[in-house]
Structures are given as structure tokens and as C-alpha cells.
Amino acid sequence: MPYRRQARRPIYVTLNPLQLTASIALGIWLGVMALALTAWVVARIFVPQPLAPLAEAARQLSNPAPAVNTTPVPQSGGDSTQMFEQYKQNLSRNEEQQRLEQARSSYRNLSNPKCQFWLQQDQTAPTDKSRANVLQFCN
């Protein structure tokens, strides 16, 4: 028995021009938004922030570092231990300051919310607690 083809029935589709135009516009808009979001994510992940060092330098210029104790030490032969202790204190203070500056300028810390919070706290109201928390959460 030979295969007999049935006549195709026509399908009538009515398109509302306003709906068609709105659907195309929405599709194009969503496509552009998806491309923009993808480009932004790729840029945040793979492209280093070239302006971050400039912003850090501007912040350092606007907020001068606290003055190091510059009181003159009497020059006597028996005060070498006191001078050495003062040297160790200055050295530890400088190391802590360098670690804080490194934590502030690290690009990796920008994605850490706890680090961002304590960096902001240390910048607005610097205390020993805020410095300790910056060193804890940002390194």
C-alpha cells in the first residue's frame, strides 16, 4: 500500500505588530545587558585596576602619617639599652604601619567584606582594635 500524503492544513498566525516590536526590543535589550554584565565580570576578574595605586597615593597625601616620636635621646654612655628599646619600638611601629599600608593597597582585599569594614573603621576612627582587626582580616 503506497504511502499517501495528506494535504497540509494551513496554519493561520496573526501577529500583532506592537507585540512583535516590543518582543524584539526586549530581546535586544536583554542581549545587550547580558553582554555588558559579562564584560564587567571579565574585566573585574582578569584586568588589574591601574588606578588603585593612584587612589592610594592620593589618600596618603591627604592623610599624613602620624609623626614618629622624635624627641631627642640624651647622649650618655649608660643609656644604650634605653636607646635599643626605643629602636625596637620604632621598628615594630614601622613594620605595623607597612603591614597596614599593604593591607589597604591590596587588590585582593577589595572582595573581602570584613576587611573592607575594618579598613573603613581604621580610616575614619583609628584605634588599636581597628588596626588589630585590619591586620587579622586583611592578611
Which segments are poorly predicted (pLDDT under 50) over 5 or more consecutive residues? none
Helical run tally: 5
Q: Estimate percent helicity.
A: 55-70%
Q: What shape does the CA trace take?
A: rod-shaped
Number of strands: 0
Give the percentage of residues in beta strands.
under 5%
Mean of pLDDT: 80
> What is the rounded distance between the termini?
82 Å
Task: Tell me the structural class.
Answer: mainly alpha
User: Radius of gyration over alpha carbons?
Assistant: 32 Å
Order of helices and strands: HHHHH
Most strands sheet: none
How does this model look, in words?
The chain has about 140 residues and is mainly α. Among the domains are: about 15-45; about 50-60 and about 85-139, no CATH class. The chain has helices at about 15-45, 50-60, 80-105, 115-125, 130-135. Helix 4 packs antiparallel against helix 5. The longest helix has 30 residues, at about 15-45. The radius of gyration is 32 Å and the shape is rod-shaped. The model has no long low-confidence stretch (mean pLDDT about 80).
Give a short overview.
The chain is an all-alpha fold. 64% of the residues lie in helices and 0% in strands.
